[in-house]
Amino acid sequence: MAAKTQRSVSKFNNELKLKGFNVWELNDDCNATRVYSRKDFYKICLSTGSSTIHYADKSFDANDTVLFFGNPHVPYSWETRSPNYTGYACLFSEDFLKLSERSESLLQSPFFKIGGTPILNISQTQREFLNTIFQKMIEEQQTDYFYKDDLMRNYIHLIIHEALKLQPSESFDQHKNALSRIASVFLELLERQFPIETPDRPLLLNTAQAYSSSLAIHVNYLNRAVKETTGKSTTTHITERIAREARALLQHTDWNIAEIAYALGFEYPTYFNNFFKKMTGTNPSTFCESMV
């Protein structure tokens, strides 16, 4: 069999996974948000400018300063309209923040919780205070201070607590074509589960019900939106994407079939073998032999 190599992720994403966090000024690293693997990281963004934020099936028009909380389990996108766009952003992993005993309740706040309100309007005074926190975080992440991680977690906690004191924005608009938006959100969330980068973290979202729960919508509504928009059922999209990932893992990694089965969310290798043969017409072992 030809030599196999594990697929790489971006240097930015690798460094972020090692540290558990990263903070930057938006006008210094405007491309960073296009590079990192959002499925693993929470995001806090303080931004000033004109933009439209799409979050799940809703949209929000921002014309001044807003504080945004991104949940890795809910797809979102950002359309910048103004030429001058400034602010700060922080990414952090759930594992990084959970090293603090206080973090579990914060991750269940209205900002990060599925179905919550992740956007707040920020006054000039509030902006100046939050700017100071982000600037301290940027300075601190460059140091070799022994307790730097604890300090960064404290800064993140401070931002969240300040946000909890504020009134969430109610200026959301339902997407004009709600079914189309839901289908788009589902497809983005589906794609965000891949590539599978390690065999010891199995795929969790592998059914229509799991996706509907993650998006806080009824499974029948999700199925209707996906079917009417794409012509395929939700389950068909999921199984086809898992099958494509299975072929890639068999071809490009040195994982054994049991590891691949587990990574893709199958309880037993036999279930994976049956799935793979149904989807491809051959079993995993034969597929591997054909790669020789």
UniProtKB/TrEMBL annotation:
Q: Does the keyword Transcription regulation apply?
A: yes
Task: Give the Pfam families listed for this entry.
Answer: HTH_18
Q: Does the keyword DNA-binding apply?
A: yes
Quote one Gene Ontology molecular function term: sequence-specific DNA binding
Pinpoint the HTH araC/xylS-type domain residues. Answer: 180-290
Against PANTHER family, the record matches this protein to:
ARAC-FAMILY TRANSCRIPTIONAL REGULATOR, TRANSCRIPTIONAL REGULATORY PROTEIN
This chain belongs to which protein, by name? Answer: AraC family transcriptional regulator
| Species annotation | Pedobacter chitinilyticus
